[in-house]
Design brief:
Blueprint: H1 13-26, H2 28-35, H3 37-54, H4 68-86, H5 91-106, H6 111-121, H7 124-137, E1 147-152, E2 160-166, H8 168-175, H9 182-195, E3 198-201, E4 213-219
Antiparallel strand pairs: 1-2, 2-4, 3-4
Helix pairs in contact: 1-3, 2-3, 3-4, 4-5, 4-8, 5-9
Length: about 240
Amino acid sequence: MSVIQSDYYTSRSRKLLKQFDKFLTQSRTLLVKRYGEVQAATMHRETLDEYERLIPDLPYIGRGNLFTGNLVQSAWALALYRVIWRHGGSVEEAGEIIHRALETEVNRKPAFLRRLKGKLRLSRWAVRMMQNAARRSQRREYPGDWVFEVVEGDGRAFDVGMDVTECGIVKFLQAQDADELAPYLCNLDYLVYQATGVELRRTMTLSWGCEKCDFRMLGDGESMEAWPPRFVEKHCGDSAE
């Protein structure tokens, strides 16, 4: 078992808080529209305070891990959710605000750059990186990390896939007693892939208690509309009754 670096995130607290503050500032109109100027300003400060309290709880998953950014952003979402809840909101309300905030963020980038990112995501180089990361994940060096395998596609049904059997975000939210938020964060994947011109197909996720998350990606496609969420994975691959 590798030594866990307990100060990995706390030593970067100032930078992490600055990044999150920028994200909240850019998304401020969403809170203002829902709660008004005064309450939105209060919630902004409270969300930063909540995030600062969460930083030491983030699990170390190794340097250069492909998913570290996802894990950090899940703490952003959790901090915002907790503050929205304290101000009388629901998980559905928090899910929508988080979705709209990320939508605003990804759409700041020019469409051609987003499309280029999508092509790079499915390139041979990127797939090799995923395969190397998948092999490392199987060693289970870090309890809070992802564990997954890469699935080769045929270029017709899908180009490349991932079967994720352990998810760092799901584990982190479970440890924080916030399981109910996980499906909303999973749903953000459709938004991100759609923005880059990559079609994401998925029939199950760990956040719904399924055996795995079965990501299947196809270039030059369109992911399903990300909001309102359809939660097609809720039935773990079975047809909805």
